[in-house]
């Protein structure tokens, strides 16, 4: 049966994209294939005698909130070269593929955390070389933000090693002040301060907070092996409060914790079936730290990063995918693969909270080598405006297939 494409996806940039605006008639395809897809590339793939990969079948670049776990699993397990290609194509539909945002993450309150995240050197449950400190002074934080801006960062993230903000009224007030000041520098501002209540979320919103980071870390099933001091549902609740306050959600995870591919897919499923896709999804590779229960974990291979990034890009096409912790282990060509797969943000600065990060100069040189350009700050709540979709009881992934 002949079929005609009704997909008319135009890239956000408005530039012409010959790949994606197509009206293509399959005149003589066998019926079996005509209903799947009609682009020349997939026809070729069929001609090579292979089934279409999960990536080829699903990389349309549409915002979808009804992903099934088996679809995400099929994307994740596509041949790497196919996954890279399709991740890259989806990336180009919605973003300038050369623009990579530089973010800076500062630990404003380090160590002594009452949570027991098994990867984290800041947990007071483990003895590591990290020393507990008080909240940094205002001038220290603001001059770090200024320096970050001068170095090309357009997003400044502040992390505090707290379970929540209970009993931290004066510190919270200070942080709200930091947010106002840094937003006034024309930077995006993000915080990660543990669990929030509605009132705190509203205050942060009023102060001009762009995004709040609260990672899922891993799948619901694997989560209890990593953290016992707060539940997956508590995480999802904080994320909902952030979203409801009108603050963009930044939420992602870490690979290399000993999880399986099923867990990775499970986490991406939870993220991509939220009522809105997170504005930002950090993909971290564990940097095993001595003294933590995960100190002996093997380093993550770049191919696993590429799979995660490309899959995240395909299922959450308009989200900023951040190549985050663990980047320091990857060579420039390996990082290039991650950008090709759809990552469009990195953290610059010599430290990521308490762990080492890539050197500033080598990052600048990488931008030059790869022809990347710094991405400007963005203050519109894009995903929120576009999503008319509403989940009821299954929002936040509480119902798992
Ligand atoms: S990851 Fe955050 S919440 Fe968990 S122990 Fe470290 S600082 Fe605390």
TrEMBL record:
A single GO CC term for this protein reads: mitochondrion
GO biological process assignments = biotin biosynthetic process
* Gene3D superfamilies, alphabetized: Aldolase class I
Q: Fetch the PROSITE patterns from UniProt.
A: RADICAL_SAM
UniProt-listed Enzyme Commission number(s): 2.8.1.6
Annotated keywords: 2Fe-2S, 4Fe-4S, Biotin biosynthesis, Iron, Iron-sulfur, Metal-binding, S-adenosyl-L-methionine, Transferase
A family per Pfam? BATS
Give the pathway: Cofactor biosynthesis; biotin biosynthesis; biotin from 7,8-diaminononanoate: step 2/2
ATP-binding recorded as keyword:
no
Radical SAM core domain ranges (all copies)? 98-327
Keyword Nucleotide-binding found: no
Cofactor dependency? [2Fe-2S] cluster; [4Fe-4S] cluster
What's an example of a GO molecular-function annotation for this chain?
2 iron, 2 sulfur cluster binding
Q: Which family does it belong to?
A: Belongs to the radical SAM superfamily. Biotin synthase family.
Show the NCBIfam families listed in the entry: bioB
Q: What is this protein called?
A: biotin synthase
Organism per entry:
Lunasporangiospora selenospora
